[in-house]
Amino acid sequence: MKVTDYFIEAGDKTLVSFEVLPPLKGGSMSDIFRTLDPLMEFKPPFIDVTYHREEYVYNKQPSGYYEKASIRKRPGTVGICASIMHRYGIDAVPHLICGGFSVEETENALIDLHFLGINNVLALRGDARRFEDKFVPEPNGHKHAVDLVRQISNMNNGIYADSNVSNGAGTDFCIGVAGYPEKHFEAPSIATDILFLKEKIEAGASYVVTQMFF
Predict the structure, then answer these.
(1) What's the half-sphere exposure (Cβ side, CA atoms, 13 Å) at 78?
(2) Cα dist. 208→31, 50, 152 in Å?
(3) What is the per-residue pLDDT across 159-199, written as a single tens digit (0 to 9) for each?
(4) What is the pTM assigned to this prediction?
(5) What domains can be seen in the chain, in order of their start residue?
(6) Fewer CB within 10 Å, N- or C-terminus of the chain?
(7) By the 8 A CB rule, do 74 and 21 touch?
């Protein structure tokens, strides 16, 4: 069931959902289940699962020099979504981000989600890496969330980034995007921030979410 369908079905009622942070590498799903099990009494219609891009770390070598390495500290978003759906029989909403993905990798991730029966995604640009002043996209990756929304929307219409795919099967993703009532800190003005949000809606987004605080 799509997130927007839950909104329509709820009417004036308040829905309570949760957001899961994947454990650090080496962690266990049992830790997530121990947290979620007692929360099921609130009957959440869906649970969001965040995604975190890779980080750069500096490992000291025997020579005394430091070697820069890229690591993903919190992998497992897709697997966690599948586990939540299997255990609780409720929808999971994976977060997809621009950072850390090429267009092709994004397409492959969306195919995996589609095959798992996941039809809700939250499309985000994502944050800059630690120690970087600004967001830097991957080579052949998306620079803005609206570009990611367009790619997902295209796949819903059977249009794939891979030019070798013709008459592709359409996916059926309900696309959520982020909104900022007090303006995104990188936006020059509230007017431009609203314009960017409007572009995401026109590109295919179906609902907008925000955070109460940072």
Answers:
(1) 13
(2) 29, 16, 16
(3) 999 989 888 899 999 999 999 888 888 889 999 999 999 99
(4) 0.89
(5) 3-8+17-209 (3.20.20.220)
(6) C
(7) yes
